[in-house]
Amino acid sequence: MALEKWNFDTQHSSIGFKVRHMMVSKVRGRFPKWSGTLEIDEANPGASKVEVEIEVASIDTQEPQRDAHLRTGDFFEVEKFPTISFKKTGAERVSGDKFKLTGDLTIRGVTKPITLEVEHNGRASHAQMGEKTGYSAHGSVSRKDFGLVYNMALEAGGVVISDHVDIEIEIEATKA
Question: Into how many domains does the chain fold?
Fold first, then answer.
């Protein structure tokens, strides 16, 4: 099978994250504005192409004051670094519909490798909506690796914001 081109359906997809807050809970956020390229070779996952560019200013944690702070130099510094990007460098089938997707993640001008655990959720066809495919992916990063070092100590020990950030992605795409 050769490369098949797909268009991301951003209305039915999500790029999100969660991070521990105050050592007791997790705050979730998402980036609703993003775009990218998806070309899939099911027989040879390594030949597939995945590139994504996220508009950082679109960050949404359901708290406007926190979102405004996340856009500042304490965190993402969106005026200087308006996008987060991901470019696939490798992919391999682990078993069945499960894959490891590796790529270069760039945040605040810092590029680091990342590995995502990916599951292909299948394909479906619809007369009006066309042929669809779906993927779920997750992974984690150290925010400090990308220069996101802002934090505050807690009186009882620990910090307000964990260094560990979980990435959660749900993709629906339409065959081009």
Answer: 1
